[in-house]
Specification:
By secondary structure, this protein is of the alpha+beta class. Helix content is 48%, strand content 22%. Helix 2 packs antiparallel against helix 3 and helix 3 packs antiparallel against helix 4.
């Protein structure tokens, strides 16, 4: 999406790192409902006046500009009537509250109070942004699924190293069969997640919306469940040391926990898959 002028202006600068942009879409109370948008953009001459709130915008406080979803027609939960606007973070009426998330990443709550946005900063077609929002989130799901697999493998490696060196009753605790079984289960979870992350990567760019959404939801469900299992087991194998900032496992635990919540947790996506199966069988 975007016209040729916008592509020329933004894409090269983003790719080179000269310009940083963040996607401001989720709102308080919307949870994972992508069409639940109450931020409005009201036409006023050759400008739009944008008002509303966005929450947990990843790196919103570090961005130069924001891609903001706003409702230009319809009701608060309609899929139609959504549009995307490019808004400068220094524009009058933009307020950014930047803070650290559980995993150390920076996120921001952003409010817009009658922010004047030129019609030239409309990204794509008016009222037709929802399919693009869905696809952007799906690409994000594929990316965090891949990241989760890497974090799970790192957790498995650091847990294995720890139980090989931590001694109890005069022997490494890795000699205990029950811990070996737990490590085997962690390995299986990581391998299953890897397969689903590959599925997500293969389908994330598909133009078949139903197939893409179903595959991404299946991947996010299994990867989310695997991330939670490996993260919790990895911490437990470290004992009390596993929750201290000095241990690599603690940081992996926080990131894996956050990844499970990003773009819809495992329970949300399991419900999406279930709804899809019911619709297909009706």
């Amino acid at each position: 999406m975007g016209n040729d002028s916008q592509k020329d202006e933004y894409l090269t600068a983003i790719a080179s790192g000269e310009r940083k942009m963040a996607f401001a879409h989720y709102e308080p109370g919307a949870r994972y409902n992508l069409s639940q948008v109450q931020t409005t953009a009201r036409k006023d001459g050759d400008h739009f006046m944008v008002s509303g709130q966005k929450t947990a915008v990843i790196h919103g406080g570090q961005a130069d500009q924001l891609v903001v979803s706003a409702r230009t027609s319809g009701n608060a939960s309609d899929e139609t009537g959504l549009s995307l606007f490019i808004i400068d973070v220094n524009a009058k009426g933009v307020k950014i509250d930047d803070y650290a998330a559980h995993d150390g990443y920076r996120i921001a709550d952003i409010s817009f109070s009658n922010v004047a946005v030129s019609a030239d900063n409309l990204l794509g077609e008016l009222d037709q942004a929802f399919p693009h929002i869905e696809k952007a989130i799906d690409l994000g799901i594929a990316a965090v699924c891949a990241e989760a697999v890497g974090a799970m493998e790192a957790m498995n490696e650091t847990a294995l190293d720890y139980i090989k060196t931590r001694k109890q009753f005069g022997v490494p605790i890795g000699k205990f069969q029950v811990l070996q079984h737990r490590m085997a289960d962690m390995f299986i979870q990581a391998e299953q997640s890897k397969s689903m992350a590959i599925l997500a990567a293969n389908t994330a760019d598909s133009d078949d919306t139903a197939e893409r959404r179903n595959a991404l939801s299946m991947a996010k469900t299994l990867v989310g469940q695997g991330a939670r299992y490996v993260a919790q087991e990895g911490v437990q194998l470290h004992g009390g040391m596993g929750v201290t900032d000095e241990m690599f496992a603690a940081h992996l635990f926080k990131r894996l926990t956050t990844i499970n919540l990003l773009f819809g947790d495992a329970d949300h996506h399991l419900a999406q898959v279930s709804d899809g199966l019911l619709a297909a069988s009706a």
